[in-house]
Design a protein that fits this description.
alpha/beta, 10 helices, globular
């Protein structure tokens, strides 16, 4: 019991100040520079790493990144199941599950992260605007609200996956409708002349599970009160290489 309470207090402290879960393949100086740029944008707030990326914290430049953990074992199993079923890197699936559990968006830095996540995305918001510092700050805040505003309802709905008589088609329609409605938040991104590029990716692991009988059956064998926390509507903001010079 004492160990559980320590874990719970640590989790609560992390959630309170966390503003994003970082996914990055730091394979080039350009990605490292973009990640350092991102950390400077969140000087007084925390960004975290999924457990599978904990090694990155050993680098001096990235020690500020918080090491996140799975609040429940079922969440770890959930991430592994999605990584296996959709042939995506564990880091990507884990970032989404962890971000859901910590009620935070994903900060995807560099092309590797964007590509890995795109295989799980169900919708996107494109940008025709070249963002400046204020523009990035605004959209970091908006993507945070995308996750926060949907969290309670989307998790409650996800718990329905464990019901024996759930209407899967109605479930999927409801989830898709919510996402398409949320995309309208990003109307400012289309008020430019740049070539359209994806800036925000949307994810709904519950929606993907509802369309995959094998995965859905696996999820139903997990404890719903724990696993559902990893199945909220999620979003990632894509931060490209070279952003520090834009």
């Amino acid at each position: 019991m004492e160990g559980f309470l320590r874990m719970l207090s640590r989790y609560a402290a992390l959630v309170k100040n966390l503003r994003g879960v970082v996914l990055a393949g730091v394979e080039s100086p350009e990605v490292e520079a973009s990640l350092q740029w991102l950390l400077k944008r969140f000087k007084y707030r925390d960004l975290g790493l999924p457990p599978s990326m904990a090694e990155l914290r050993k680098r001096k430049a990235f020690r500020r990144l918080m090491g996140l953990f799975h609040p429940a074992e079922e969440l770890k199993k959930l991430a592994e199941a999605f990584a296996l079923e959709f042939s995506v890197p564990l880091e990507a699936a884990e970032a989404l599950v962890i971000a859901s559990a910590y009620v935070s968006p994903v900060m995807a830095v560099g092309s590797w992260a964007a590509e890995a996540l795109s295989r799980l995305a169900v919708e996107k918001a494109e940008s025709k605007v070249k963002l400046d510092g204020k523009g990035w700050k605004l959209h970091f805040r908006i993507v945070d609200y995308t996750v926060l505003d949907a969290y309670e309802k989307s998790v409650a709905e996800a718990e329905g996956l464990w019901k024996p008589k759930l209407n899967l088609e109605a479930f999927k329609r409801k989830r898709i409708k919510r996402i398409r409605r949320d995309v309208k938040r990003y109307w400012r991104l289309m008020e430019g002349e740049e070539e359209p590029k994806s800036l925000i990716l949307y994810f709904d692991l519950a929606l993907l599970a509802a369309g995959n009988p094998k995965l859905l059956q696996y999820i139903k064998n997990l404890r719903s009160e724990e696993a559902a926390a990893g199945l909220a509507l999620e979003a990632a903001i894509l931060i490209p290489e070279g952003v520090e010079t834009s």
